Amino acid sequence: MSDTVIPVTTRKDWSSDQEVRWCPGCGDYSILAAVQLLMPDLGIRREDVVFVSGIGCAARFPYYMNTYGMHTIHGRAPAIATGLAMARPDLHVWVVSGDGDALSIGGNHLIHALRRNINITLLLFNNQIYGLTKGQYSPTSEVGKVTKSTPFGSLDHPFNPVSVAIGAEATFVARTHDMDRKHMMEVFRRAFEHRGSSLVEVYQNCNVFNDGAFGEITAKQNRDEMLIPLRHGEPIRFGAEGSRGVVIDGQRGAHIVDVADVGEDALLVHDETRSDPSVAFMLSRLARGPHEPTPVGIFRAVERPEYGEGVSRQLAVAQKERGPGDLETLLRSGATWEVG
Amino acid sequence: MSDTVIPVTTRKDWSSDQEVRWCPGCGDYSILAAVQLLMPDLGIRREDVVFVSGIGCAARFPYYMNTYGMHTIHGRAPAIATGLAMARPDLHVWVVSGDGDALSIGGNHLIHALRRNINITLLLFNNQIYGLTKGQYSPTSEVGKVTKSTPFGSLDHPFNPVSVAIGAEATFVARTHDMDRKHMMEVFRRAFEHRGSSLVEVYQNCNVFNDGAFGEITAKQNRDEMLIPLRHGEPIRFGAEGSRGVVIDGQRGAHIVDVADVGEDALLVHDETRSDPSVAFMLSRLARGPHEPTPVGIFRAVERPEYGEGVSRQLAVAQKERGPGDLETLLRSGATWEVG
Amino acid sequence: MTNTAVPATAPEVVDRVIIRFAGDSGDGMQLTGDRFTTSSALYGNDLATLPDFPAEIRAPAGTLAGVSAFQVQISDHDITTPGDAPDVLVAMNPAALHSQIGRVAPRATVIVNGDAFDDRSLAKAGYSTNPLRDGTLDGFTVYEVPMTSLTRGAVEPLGVKTRDAERSKNFFALGLVSWMYTRPVDPTLEWIDKRFATKPTVAEANTVAFKAGHAFGETAELFAHRYEVHPAKLPAGTYTNVTGNTALAWGLVAASQLSGLPLFLGSYPITPASDILHELSRHKNFGVRTLQAEDEIAGIGAALGAAYGGHLGVTTTSGPGMALKSETMGLALNLELPLLIIDIQRGGPSTGLPTKTEQADLLMALYGRHGESPLPVLAARSPSHCFELAIEAARIALTWRTPVILLSDGYLANGTEPWRLPDVASLPDLHVEFATEPNHMNPDGSEVFWPYERDPDTLARPWALPGTPDLMHRIGGLEKEEGSGNVSYDPANHERMVRIRAAKIAGIADHIPEAEVTGDVDDAELVVVGWGSTWGAIDGAASRVRRSGHRVAQVHLTHLNPLPRNLGDVLRRYPRVVVPELNLGQLSRELRAEYLVDARSVTRVRGLPFTAAELELAILDHLEVAP
Amino acid sequence: MTNTAVPATAPEVVDRVIIRFAGDSGDGMQLTGDRFTTSSALYGNDLATLPDFPAEIRAPAGTLAGVSAFQVQISDHDITTPGDAPDVLVAMNPAALHSQIGRVAPRATVIVNGDAFDDRSLAKAGYSTNPLRDGTLDGFTVYEVPMTSLTRGAVEPLGVKTRDAERSKNFFALGLVSWMYTRPVDPTLEWIDKRFATKPTVAEANTVAFKAGHAFGETAELFAHRYEVHPAKLPAGTYTNVTGNTALAWGLVAASQLSGLPLFLGSYPITPASDILHELSRHKNFGVRTLQAEDEIAGIGAALGAAYGGHLGVTTTSGPGMALKSETMGLALNLELPLLIIDIQRGGPSTGLPTKTEQADLLMALYGRHGESPLPVLAARSPSHCFELAIEAARIALTWRTPVILLSDGYLANGTEPWRLPDVASLPDLHVEFATEPNHMNPDGSEVFWPYERDPDTLARPWALPGTPDLMHRIGGLEKEEGSGNVSYDPANHERMVRIRAAKIAGIADHIPEAEVTGDVDDAELVVVGWGSTWGAIDGAASRVRRSGHRVAQVHLTHLNPLPRNLGDVLRRYPRVVVPELNLGQLSRELRAEYLVDARSVTRVRGLPFTAAELELAILDHLEVAP
Ligand SMILES: Cc1ncc(C[n+]2csc(CCOP(=O)(O)OP(=O)(O)O)c2C)c(N)n1
Ligand SMILES: Cc1ncc(C[n+]2csc(CCOP(=O)(O)OP(=O)(O)O)c2C)c(N)n1
Ligand code: SF4
Ligand code: SF4
Ligand SMILES: [Mg+2]
Ligand SMILES: [Mg+2]
After folding, report:
1. Residues with Cβ < 8 Å from D176, sequence gap 6 or more?
2. To the nearest whole number, what is the mean pLDDT of chain D?
3. pLDDT (tens digit, 9 = 90+) per residue, B211-224?
4. pLDDT-derived band of residue D7, with 50, 70 and 90 as boundaries?
5. Which of A65, A338, C122, C536 could lock C127 by a disulfide, CB 3.0 to 4.6 Å apart?
6. Considering only CA atoms, which residue is closest to atom 23 of ligand 2?
7. C145 and C111 Cβ atoms separated by less than 8 Å
């Protein structure tokens, strides 16, 4: 669309005129900032971008972007975005969703979008709570969570969004958090550049209904010890001077060791591109919740045919082989006879 | 319910008076036989068993069992069974579903039932096709499948039901196939005995719309080379005289080797009970489809609190602490005042 | 009793005949009926068909549950239904005879496959004694033909295995009936070659069987005589035989071509709608995108997403799927985007009777959404009408920027009729203007795009496609401020928007045809009001009633929301208003509420179309009662 | 203009007053209003409340979008609504003033937090000049109180941080208003201690602030005078103040106790229904099982599964969730199992106005399912009526073995009224008989259980629980054979079953109260027919109209399907039928279709309840037109 030089833009150009309506202190603000700051760097036009969301606090996101946007219904954004991305391969379709929106009511659409590898960039704001409806537990809340709907503590074992995505054949899966703008921007950029479905779990603080859910690992002073950065091609280590690291063995899966004990060479070298998702899955199991050392970054980024392209290719081939459709001919494709 | 001696029964006692209406030659017949033959051995009463299903050929199953049964709507059986199992912990609730019913429209209910670990035994008849609606591709159909709805071949990357289940926190995941009654019966029994959600993928031949989908691995003459039996506590090997086996390494995940090359000790010893699901997940990735050596048997069987028990316990505790509910008191629990 | 008269010389000419083929699901009765239909069509008869098959893929052979039937009426004049009671029943086995004999006309001709009447099959079919011997069939003209063995005998020489040979027996039956009704032979032979091109032995077997059946009729001295049904005098033109689902699919392709918008179908398979998905997925060279979604909600969701992207979004389903789509319909009508929602009605409630027909989704189509959520609703009256109506639905959706519900049903979906092909050049232009510029000026003089700044006439909102510079905007399911489309909780604004949405849909009434009255327009004692697939039966019944000396007017509705502007006046013109429906009185409820006319219902819910005969009686009953 | 008169000695006695508290979402206005309400209730006033808060959790401070308000009417006589125009507005900031001033009564008292009227806040609220100075408020009695600073001054000595100190300003306002209306002080002080028991400093701060506000009224020479509203003469009994959602939850618990069936709630959170889930999840000692399901479909599905298991299955939701549940409702009605489906209506369509009230789901409740799928539908008329109606819904569901839809709305859900507690012993017995024995004999003499062998009176089917020996049976969504319940595709059987299901629901009419007419029963010029939450406003409006000399009758419907047996006769008795609804005329449509009466609509869709005043005018208009 329009002329070929991409106009230079700033965050302001990507911000809509709508006043942002999240609670003061909500983690959503910093995610919005990261996205708005990243956009000018992506070499794309605002009019070629669509943000699609469901319902929830997170889902208000599109209103704040000066792009095209659809604030749809609870849980259905991945399905709606699938149609849009199939129909319009020229667009950049982003989906913004919450842990309830994406994993509770919308879980099925999510996993099907992932397996189809439809070209969407999906940001899952995981605050481990239902924010907009004022604080019920979510499919990512820890067992025993006391909320309005579980005054005696929840019994439901939570999903690990990264594990779910990998189990659902996702080609790009990553995790970041709302306290580190730089990291968010790096991960969002990679997700955007990936052809196909990319899922980014963003740990997000809901300071009203689930304050501090991720503090143990995302607070500045804890990050070194509690966040395990995944860097492609590098041995996985973390902690002060990278004193700790991750190794894998067949009997015990992935686990954390002191590098001093095993030696650097024993460490697992991170490879985003393994076609077998098993190792990425192992990494997703390292932490059972945001109170153990938790991997952040890109777990998996592999090539697989993108759905929309496949669709377009089938159309092109059909038109090449049979010529563009002709209505006359179609109507006469069955047995016909003349009445004179 | 009723007297304490379990009456001795035979297959006939578990067969309803309804004539079975599957196509002649359908794999569903042999699965039905396996279940009906197993029942008398489980030490349970017919009246304490409920079969719940959705819609599809597979979903006709409950009509043929002389137990209680609900033939519900497409995709919803796991949700309906969840309510029944929560309400009636004394019952044995089975769910029978197809690959479309369980993984297409019903995918979300399935993964939530699995993560909650609700006490149901779920048999997923995977024929990689929509049977009842006369042959459209399903979420487990291979890419490129030509069907009524995909005359130019399907583009959707399929789900691996075992991987999906493991990614969704399932506590019991197994696979068997309609050509081996003995194996089916063993696996079904274990699934039944598991406290919590157990998912069994059953490769099932739809001889009308997808004939021979599993022939390469399930046909008698191919089984030795193409099926990898998982036996708890034993090294994983298969092939003539167990000449081949499975090893795991961090960089390559699980793969197949000649035992002669690596030696028996290098083989992965199967352990159903690993709390970390990563190794089970690795095994689920060994075969990319039923044309490579494929593991069958129990991938994972771990203990985790069963949902319904947890619910009942919370009720019991509340009653113990606060005494059985009294309506009078409830109505007066807010601020009250008298008008004389 | 078996008939042994000598064949007459020349075929007896009859004006119409109703033939019903019945056999096991495995016997290929649908194919047989279909083939007989096509050759009759090519021969120039008017005709209508009614396939009638079980919900099971293939119930156990020989059981009543497994019987699959196909009825066709062929005639030398214009007809509108597959007819009531068959004049000829072809029964391939006892179960077929048992389940179908009840429907056939008195003194009908019954052709049975004698080989199939062994004791086991009789038992399976619930016969304790052999109906061919025990007088069950007294009064019918019965031909007992050993089809299986004759077919085997004819085919085996080709070196075909016995079991396979017997598979061709339906072609033997087809050949025999083709002879009886002097159908042309060549088209069928050619078709066999084409259809089984990849399986030459099967082709050959079927050809031989067909010829054997034909020859058997010719030579066996047992047929009283053959019949001939002359071609019908239909309007000049090129004809083809279509099912409603095919016509609908083609209509959607046409709408895409006429609007210049690529077609996008988001759908989930469900009987009896699946064939639309199947048909559309074949036409990729028309730029048609089809998605077999994970469920119905995703199907309509994807179609809506595509619509936002500027495609002609369509979703197809049946009752259970319609129920699931209702929340998304509400979103679509709030977003005010064009979208076609197609419901091929089947027997309900719940899973109901998946392969049978019914008209019981009308009220759901009108009211099955939360909040005030009016949508246009259309209903097709015949298989070929589905083509026209798909285009009309698209016209409304695109002009008023609204989802439109199009109702068909199992009977139209699978039934066929000869269709005089329209002149493509004569089809309406559905060209759409997209927004390309800002349409509103802010107080500060800056120009902006307001997605809800409406067209004053239609009240339709502008449609700006992603990719259009400077028109970036956000839409959603929360109430929107009039004009700007920003989220608004203002009470007065909500009231305005609710009424605008209602007025927009109501206003469509000014742009649709008025209700047309046919029959005894001026002096009818009674007006019959129908909608959808009952058109043929109502038309047939009305003429019968007229023949019995009464004066009857007819109105058949295509647009159910909004209703034609003149409908109230029309109904008040007649002393009696009778509304036949395949439900418990859904349209009549609407008419009563809208016009306060005492509309009386005639209702049937058997999963089958009305027969003209039962409707005739019902109308006569209503004529009895004083208005 | 600021008022500086000297305080009068004794409080002036008034019969009723309407007070509206408005502030930022963060200012705790709901709590303040709630507290004022409770102390008034304890004091013995009759009252009704209307919370009015934004859809955002907490929109940006100081913006119009962020304003949260709470209105309460207290009186010394029986009242039915929170009143129309407030006599007193408490505005904590400019945005609150700006958004609310339009509603208040002429010459009303306006109390503002003067500290909040700085330029930034004024701008945020869209004021270019200060309304306290620019004459905007001329004609009102304005009290400008520096609440923030006064609170800070009172609280800081406790060593509380400034920001926290200011948080208590709503208690200052509460203290002030409590003084103005001579409310008892102790209950509030006690409540503060209880409520903030875990946060003693907060408790102390709020106590101090409350006392400071009270003292300020006492001492500041600024208030004209205080008022007193005497207790109302209500029927003797024990009273409590309930919201509709609490009453509904308690009614469900009661139904469980009365039927002896354990309660099972399958639900998915949604405004304004979530509080029912919250309330029920607290009562585990009543054996209540609650499942927060993955979505609405799973919610009703689980409830249905529990119902099959013999529990009292319930699902709660609002419009968007209702739409999603419709397919499962169809299954439930085919299975003919008891199930309560509760819809707390909110502004639609689509996401609409989640926190506002509306009555626009009636037609969906009646018709929002595919196929012929009738369900009983009930609607509550007031917060406390929700208790009674939950029991009535359970009675119908259990007696007729059918899902029942119960409609409430956002206004009832969050609004409160004093409720005279029923004598528990007087509540109906809902005891259920389960099937324990075979109920049918096969031809061969063997005894079997037929799940669809119906009770001849109610047409209800037997309910046999899994676990019962010898009654094993299978039920499903396909059409079932009458009696045996086996799958049946027989056309005649389908027709019978469809009509039986319809007759069963229609028959309930013989077991519900007839429509009760109130007001000028014998000689009314007009009958007002209402349903649901409009009851209070209609009642108020009707009395006003009567005061102006007209004769008006009233009918308020609780049972919407089936309708009361006598309703047709009742309506035909009066020259004019007027139907006020918070939708575009859904009930009036029903009445027209059912009875062919020319019911006229009075409709509002603003997300707010009717005011008695606007309804009065509307009724008077209709009295103008000749019938
Ligand atoms: C069909 C439907 N069901 C339920 C709701 C109510 N609802 C709105 S948002 C939401 C969940 C929000 O949680 P999440 O997705 O985690 O987003 P967050 O608010 O935490 O960002 C729910 C239950 C709805 N709007 N629509
Ligand atoms: C809501 C709804 N959507 C669609 C259908 C149509 N339908 C029935 S079964 C089925 C899929 C069957 O495939 P599967 O679950 O694999 O079962 P199978 O027949 O292969 O055993 C579909 C799409 C339906 N009955 N209800
Ligand atoms: S409720 Fe939580 S998630 Fe929602 S806006 Fe407020 S802080 Fe953010
Ligand atoms: S269609 Fe396939 S799955 Fe269904 S009954 Fe026939 S063979 Fe079995
Ligand atoms: Mg959340
Ligand atoms: Mg299948």
Report:
1. D111, D145, D147, D213, D214, D216, D217
2. 93
3. 999 999 999 999 99
4. very low
5. C122
6. C269
7. yes
Q: What six digits make up the tokens of C106?
A: 């008195």
Does an H or E element contain A105, and which? none
**Residues 6 or more apart whose Cβ sits within 8 Å of residue C10:** none
Measured between alpha carbons, how far is residue A163 from residues A124, A169, A175, A278 in Å?
Answer: 14, 10, 11, 10
**Of residues D358, D367, D494, nearest to C363 (C-beta):** D367
Chain C residues in contact with D501 (beta carbon < 8 A) = 349
* Alpha carbon of A293: minimum distance to chain D alpha carbons (Å): 29
CA D77/CA D16 separation, integer angstroms? 8
CATH assignment at residue D587: 3.40.50.920
Secondary structure (DSSP) of D467-488: T-TT---EEESB-B-TBT--B-
Is D98 in the same domain as D200? Answer: yes
Across the interface, do B252 and A311 touch by the CB < 8 Å criterion? no
- Structurally, chain D folds into a number of domains equal to 3
Q: What is the pLDDT of residue C362?
A: 98
- Residue D178 to chain A, least CA–CA distance (Å): 30
Nearest in space to D534 (alpha carbons), one of D380, D423, D352: D380
Q: Provide the H-helix boundaries in C143-222.
A: 147-155, 162-167, 169-180, 186-195, 200-219
* Residue C66 confidence (pLDDT): 87
Tokens at residue C57, please?
């893929």
Is C58 close to B24, i.e. CB distance below 8 A?
Answer: yes
Phi then psi dihedrals of residue C157, to 5 deg:
-50, -25
Measured CA to CA, the distance from residue A151 to residue B340 in angstroms comes to 37
Domain-terminating residue out of C426, C458, C475: C426
| Domain carrying residue D360 | 240-426
- Which residue from A31, A122, A130 has its CB within 8 A of the most atoms of ligand 1, so it is best to mutate? A130
| Total residue length of chain D | 627
Residue nearest to atom 8 of ligand 4 (CA): B26
**Assigned domain for C493 exists:** no
Asked whether the beta carbons of A140 and A161 are under 8 A apart, the reply is yes
C456 Cβ contact partners less than 8 Å away, ≥ 6 residues apart:
none
Close Cβ partners of B185 (under 8 Å, ≥ 6 residues apart): B34, B37, B38
Chain B contacts of A156, Cβ < 8 Å? Answer: 115-116, 307
- What does the DSSP 8-state code read for residue D105? P
**Residue ranges near ligand 5 (ion) with Cβ within 5 Å:** A 98-99, 127
The CATH number given to whatever domain includes residue C34 is: 3.40.920.10
Closest-CA distance of chain D to residue C90, Å: 21
The Å distance, Cα B95 to ligand 2 centre, comes to 15
Same domain, D538 and D413: no
Cβ(B173)–Cβ(B202) under 8 Å? no
Q: Which residues pair with C240 in a beta bridge?
A: A336, C419
DSSP string spanning B208-222?
TTBTTTTHHHHSHHH
Mutate to test the pocket of ligand 2, among B101, B127, B159, B205 (most ligand atoms within 8 A of CB): B101
Please tell me whether the peptide bond between B40 and the residue prior to it is cis, using omega within 30 degrees of 0: no
Residues of chain A with pLDDT under 50: 1-2
Coil vs helix vs strand at A321: helix
> Sign of torsion, CA B108 B111 B115 B118?
positive
Write down which residue in C392, C426, C460 finishes a domain: C426
Query: C503 — contact with chain D (CB < 8 Å)?
Result: no
Residue range C35-90, pLDDT digits in tens? 999 888 888 888 889 888 887 777 788 888 889 999 999 998 888 889 989 999 99
CATH number for region B11-213+303-314: 3.40.50.970
